[in-house]
Amino acid sequence: MGKGKWRWGVILDAGSSGTRVYVYRWKDPAKAIKDASYEKLHSLPQLQSKKKWTKKIRPGVSTFGDHPEDVGPDHLQDLIDHAMDIIPEEKHADTPIFLMATAGMRLLPTDQQRAVTSKICSYFRQHTQFSLPDCDMHVQVIPGATEGLYGWIAANYLLGGFDDPNGHAHGKGHHTYGFLDMGGASAQIAFAPNATVAEQHADDLQLLRMRTLNGAPLEYKVFTTTWLRFGMHEARQRYVDKLLDTYLVEDKQHEVPDPCLPRGLRTTTDGDIIKGKSSEMELVGTGEFDDCLRMTKPLLGKDMVCNDPPCLLNGQHVPPIDFDVNHFVGVSEFWHSTHGIFSNGDESSYDFDAYQKKVLGFCSQNWDEIEGDISRRKGSAAQEAQEACFKASWLINVLHEGLGIPRVGLESTPPPDVNATKGIGEAAKEKGFLDPFQAADKIDGLEVSWTLGKMLLYASGQIPPQSNANLPVGFGRNVKGIPPDFQYAGSTYNSSLTWDEDEDDWSDTAEEFLDHAKSRSSSGFLLFVLILIVLAFLFRKRDRRMRLYTRVNSILRYRRRPGSPRKGGRGFSNLAKKIFGRGAYNYERVLEEGDFDQFELGDTSSDDGDHSDGSGTSRVGRASGLATPKLNIEGFDDLTKPAYPSNAIDRSGLVVRTESRERLYPQMLHAGRRSRTGSPTRQKSPLISPLDRG
């Protein structure tokens, strides 16, 4: 049996406020290499995702710290079901699953972290067929610096800095972009210093190694660090604590002035709006934004002792930043705090002076005025409005007082020298990311997510290396060769399997037709497409008609969950029996499920062992009002093509050739999902640790 051309990956971003699952797919490297142009051979793998392939649930996994046994059934099952419905069942065994927890879990005690991750790994193994050979690698609380590095990979991948270094030259031989991220609990920075600083601070950098489609290594030296409790929610909590310490002078007092709340707004210390009389402790808004800026500035920790100069926030060492060539992309709260309430939808870049004027105008209003305006503004809620002034003050302080980013629109930035100006690439000019800071939610309509960076590493690790460059994909200490702390991407490569080229091409054609048909309201167009497909079937061999039938039928029924009642009759199945044979209907329960609409990414959070590498990313999103560059994505001309079953890769990572389950055991097609607990392969896997078996 041929091997399908698609590889799949599942990653769960377990953030402080919730968990989001992302599903990615990319071409099998052997197939991609065969069809690649010269440009694509020198580029990283092309990953795909769709908005409907993501799903988020609340709250975060950190809330299960004192009852970890509930994290699977009460929290993860819906996300697992979502991923299993998207990925063809026969591909599950080949599909890696990762859960990576961020700042919310970092705040838990170590024993609770271990208990939660152990239960998560056990639950995945018992309730899915996804590949999970090593718990420590696949289910972990990742350091903030690692999260920042993954985000840096994602941003540069989407902007094109990796694949087109000449086009993205910023001067001084620099062609990558800096990355800033802020969630609810932490904030991260990642950037590649200029050549001089990189040499002076070599010990501070991480060596990152990826692999282009032709097997050549792609290496970068990146600085990344994180600030725990510098995320927006944690910063607000620290600010409120400071307010109470400053103004609360006696036990009977229950009103404290808050300059970061609009005038007249009264809330609890947890942010709940208070109306009428209350005996609770109240924060009473005064709407004094200048005072808000002044009171949030000390939260930066600029007065902390710097043991390893230079330092930025909280006494943490950061190498000097050359804003002449380091142009930062800010995501998550950096985006939401410069948009939302303050956005007119016409910004092309971040301008400090213009932004501060908008903030001052909004935050000087009475709460009654703001409430009246909320109902007339789409997408604006009371919660967003009441937090907007604090968020703006924290963002301004972090950017300009903390990180030292020049205030564009107010301060003059040092112009690059003549040589640097001449060296700026055309692609960089077109994208507009030449200011020291620019916020982005999507890049050319594609969401920036750190999960994209992780999966890109995994996918690039599946590419066979050039014979003279057999070094693993991943990252670690900035030393030659393989650092002792190297974090392997976790994937393996193998080019010995083959696929049915003809089957891929016909399946892709059918899928594209149906994809267009689903987006049209005309029943005539759909009928025309179906007639074309039926005619195509009649000229194919019976076994290939059978396989293509399963794919077409799965597309039409994507939203029906396995085992749920059918909506409508079985006309298509009955007709298929006449065309394909009596056994056609028996295959329906194992059809690939997928949504083949235009692909999108989802909305906007210590690997050891001898593994090669890999990861996946996706290009996605809504058009953003601010800092949305024009990215050439002609290389994604086949994003709507389908996957087809491939042979399995066993739990130890060895490629094996087997017949599909539906061919060997047709009587088991309706048996449903089974636990992998008793799998002989699992019991023999040398990668399963004693903790994993629990």
UniProtKB/TrEMBL annotation:
Binding site for ATP: G184, A185, S186, A187, Q188
Any one GO biological process: UDP catabolic process
Keyword entries, A-Z: ATP-binding, Hydrolase, Membrane, Nucleotide-binding, Transmembrane, Transmembrane helix
Entry's transmembrane regions: 522-539
Catalytic residue list: E147 (proton acceptor)
Region annotation (Disordered) ranges: 601-624, 657-694
Entries under Gene3D superfamilies matching the protein: 3.30.420.40, Exopolyphosphatase. Domain 2
GO cellular component terms, semicolon-separated: Golgi apparatus; membrane
Biased composition (Polar residues): 677-686
Gene Ontology MF terms in the entry: ATP binding; GDP phosphatase activity; ribonucleoside triphosphate phosphatase activity; UDP phosphatase activity
PROSITE patterns reported in the protein's UniProt record: GDA1_CD39_NTPASE (PS01238)
Protein family: Belongs to the GDA1/CD39 NTPase family.
This protein's name: Golgi apyrase
